[in-house]
Amino acid sequence: LYRKGTLDILNSSNTPATLTLNGTFYATGDTLIGQNGKDMTLDLQGHTVFISSNTTGNQKALTVGGKCTVKGPGVIIAVGDIEFKPKSQVGEEQGGGPVFVLSVRGTTTIQPSGRVYGAIAGSIEVYVQQGEKPVITYPTGGFGDDLNFLMGVRELTYSIASYKVIPLARDE
């Protein structure tokens, strides 16, 4: 799925709804998921949500609201800030899978109301909801091969983008 511009994904009924991905989801503008106060589930099914936004200031490239349950396995990536405050548990240790969240350029602000099974990468701020203990559990077996990571690209190339030389102190 490709969406040029902003996108709101909301449950418009009074009964819980589920959005099940069956491929990579890509949007080029600020995206809100589950931000209207009605219960919904984002079932990643091993796929990727990729948001590329040129937002500046206090706006977020991607917001996952407090009434949205996120099921794994899957990947959530944004070029820009992510506000991630999902309802209940994120990912599933038994029968589902882990969720990988990454803000490529920006900060992921996470405020879970339950356990997070997976990983959060990049610049991260964690806020604890009153009465909750944040627990992020990395999958012991890693993420496996079941993720449709960025449209099926699996071969990664590593390089040094920048570096800084730090002089060592010499013993005299």
Keywords:
172 residues, mainly beta
Please write out the topology.
Elements: E1 2-3, E2 7-9, E3 17-20, E4 25-27, E5 31-33, E6 40-43, E7 48-52, E8 62-64, E9 68-71, E10 74-79, E11 82-84, E12 99-110, E13 116-126, E14 136-137
Parallel strand pairs: 1-4, 2-5, 3-6, 4-7, 5-8, 6-9, 7-10, 8-11, 10-12, 11-12, 12-13, 13-14
Molecular structure report:
The chain is mainly β and 172 residues long. It has no helices and 14 strands. It has strands at 2-3, 7-9, 17-20, 25-27, 31-33, 40-43, 48-52, 62-64, 68-71, 74-79, 82-84, 99-110, 116-126, 136-137. It is globular. The model is unreliable at 151-160 (pLDDT under 50).
Short structural description:
The chain has 172 residues and is mainly β.
Rg, please?
17 Å
Amount of beta strand: 35-45%
Q: How many DSSP-defined strands?
A: 14
Helix percent band: under 10%
- How many helical elements? 0
- What structural category do the secondary elements indicate? mainly beta
Task: Tell me the major beta sheet.
Answer: 11 strands, parallel
**Distance between the terminal alpha carbons, to the nearest Å?**
63 Å
Shape: globular
> Average pLDDT value?
80
Detail the poorly predicted runs: 151-160
What are the secondary-structure elements, in order, as H or E? EEEEEEEEEEEEEE
